[in-house]
Write a structure and sequence with these properties.
two-stranded antiparallel sheet; about 260 residues; elongated; mainly alpha; 2 strands
Length: about 260
Amino acid sequence: MSDDERVYSEDDNMMVDDEETALEIAALQDDETLIQRKKEFINHKAALSTLVEEISQKNLDWVQRCDITSMSPLVVENTEDDLDRELKFYQQALEAVTRAKANIKEAGIPFSRPDDYFAEMVKSDSQMARIRQKLLDQQKSIQNSEEAKKQRQLRKYGKQIQQEKIKEREDKKKAALDKIAAVKKRLRNANTGDDDDFDIDVNSDDEVKPGSGFVGKSKNGRPLPNKKRQIKNAKFGFGGKKRGLKKNTAASTDDMSGFSH
């Protein structure tokens, strides 16, 4: 091996040793950074009090400071009770506002808004008009929805009433048909001389009602027409064949009495 080759090999070994040393140092530094040191909390009351005195504004008037300290400490027995906790906050804030109002009045500084106070609105009139129109549209939509719901209920109630009326009509029709069948049966029994079923009671509905055009009943139980109708029947007839009455026959064709000689 020549001298130059020996020098190169020594330099390479030194470079490898330096790299390994650097890696070991880096690993040790990483281990130190991974170790979490416990933070120590120190309460220097004297130093804190000194700082508070430095930043305090006791030499200023209350109107410039506007600070209120509660006269009674806030005590919440159960911190999980939201209602009790919020009530205590409300009472403490109410006490602070009352005392602050008294201090402002004592200082003679007005704090109420005057009656003629005018402030320009943040939103423009056009934007407020759009918001007002949107609210009106929402109110109208709610009214339309309520009206549609009411109409549906009325339709449902109307259908129920209609069904009850139809059922009532069917019941009346059935009762009338039963009465008619009973009268027919009574008439058949009267014609055949069988009086077993002749004592069938007929309700007052079968009687002749005033204004119906009938004045009584005939022997066979049928209702009689009034006098005016009887006169017309006697004059013009009351039934029978009407078609073909003016039709020519052999006798009418041979009859020449209607022609002058």
